[in-house]
Amino acid sequence: MSRFLGEIRQLGYVVHDIEAAMDYWSTRLGVGPWFYNPRVPIKNYRYNGEAHEPHNSVALANSGYVQVELIQTRNDVPSMYRDFLQAGRTGLQHVAYWTADYDADLARLTKQGFKPVMSGEVGERGRFIYFDTEYHPGTVIELSEVAGPKGRMFDLIRNASEGWDGSEPVRPFPDLSKL
User: Fold this and answer.
1) More exposed terminus of the chain, fewer Cβ within 10 Å: N or C?
2) Does 69 score more than 90 pLDDT?
3) Helix (H, G, I), strand (E, B), or coil: what is residue 56?
4) Least confident of 69-83, 107-121, 132-146, 162-176
């Protein structure tokens, strides 16, 4: 448990081949099912204060209470993911904490000296922000808002993992506008 934000809710892995990673996690580790989006609809994306249009593929699955996120960058837009890959790394890039009170938690963390690097939003009330906390690989902190459809999607993903029998290991992302 973090004294800053409670429990780590997500482990984010940056990979070169998301399809191979989903296959490995589901067949070798028994984690799934994976909810896959080949092009995540990120709005208001900013990296170091500049706006960009990233094309990232993402797959999400749960192992118990913890969500695993696989991320593959599909273009050369500046991001912490691209920086991670360009440093010769793959694997665990960030840990995420989830919040229903994004504004208050963001204000508290910036007051404590956390420096934002990358941000955006996925769906209504689905903002996210990454901080400059990588002192060794895998320690970037993400604050992820789960007060809207993204939070309901995360519940759906966790529920699908409970008692998963290995069938349909890869499934499409739910339509956030309908959650």
Assistant:
1) N
2) yes
3) strand
4) 132-146
Edge to edge, the sheet with strand 43-47 lists 50-51, 43-47, 116-121, 127-131, 140-145, 91-99, 10-14, 66-73, 56-63, 34-37, 170-172
pTM above 0.90, yes or no: yes
SS3 of 169, please?
coil
Token pair of 102 as six digits: 């994004």
Residue type, 44: N
**3-state DSSP percent of the chain in helix, strand and coil, to 5:** 25, 35, 40
CA distances from 44 to 8, 54, 58, 135 (A): 25, 10, 18, 27
Query: What is the mean predicted confidence (pLDDT) over 38-65?
Result: 97
Q: Which of 26, 55, 20 is nearest to 41 (CA)?
A: 55
Listed residue (165, 173, 162) closest to 69, CA to CA: 173
Burial group, residue 23, by CB count within 10 angstroms (0-12, 13-18, 19+): middle
